[in-house]
What does this fold into?
Amino acid sequence: MKYSAMNHFSHPEHKLKFDYTEHPFKCDGCKEVGIGSHYKCCNDDNCSNNNNICDYDLHLHCAIPSPSISHPFYTKCQFEFMSRPPGSIQRYCNACERDVIGFVYHCRSCGFDLHPCCAKLPMVLHDGEVKLYLQRKVSTPCHRCGRKGRSWTYRSNCKKYNLHVACVKEMLVDNWHELYYGMKMSVPSLKGSLETHLRHRKSRKGKVQKCCEMAGLALQFIISAILGDPTTLIVGVVASLTSK
Ligand SMILES: [Zn+2]
Ligand SMILES: [Zn+2]
Ligand SMILES: [Zn+2]
Ligand SMILES: [Zn+2]
Ligand SMILES: [Zn+2]
It folds into this structure.
């Protein structure tokens, strides 16, 4: 089911098929950026045509939403999937603080909203050495913006590395043009974030390199999770980071 062509209510004129890309796309469901596994329009009914005329893409989480979900951060809430936010006032996502303009999970009783990919962010990201835990609020400053609180945060198991989901999204949006035309061009701003991190760590000699590697890896995990597919390896970014 997951890997075959499908009909989707949001794009009834054509079938959608499973695809994988290391180039970011804009999801036509939630209107947020995506990478990795996704569904794209076939442009015809039997998926024989490979011209991407429609350029219609959906995150997996947007292509195959759950009718309703609960979330460990909001134990009293029942979130319902909606193809657009309810009402006429501007709504924002409680996880990343960005506007909600497309697909959303909405709790009717308290009015909370979550983008589909934010709602399904993994509570733990790890690859052997590095473990990152998703937290609703963290009392130590974020390495990108220096602020406490704010949006959901990924925190390393050593508790020294904190990065807001909101800040990662900002980085991605600020670099959208470069991201869209080649992931590698986004590295300077990512490097900026890492250098800030390094400055915090300058006093402890010897640990710096190790810390930087961890930060790079952490960033890659967080970015791909926020883009909707935590299994995607952002090869260009990682190669540039480790060659520095
Ligand atoms: Zn989406
Ligand atoms: Zn189409
Ligand atoms: Zn609620
Ligand atoms: Zn969000
Ligand atoms: Zn931040």
Notes: The longest strand covers residues 16-26. Residues 74, 76-77, 107, 109-110, 112 surround zinc ion (ligand 3) (CB under 6 Å). Confidence is low (pLDDT under 50) at residues 183-209, 235-244. Helices lie at 60-63, 116-119, 165-174, 176-181, 187-201, 207-226, 235-243.
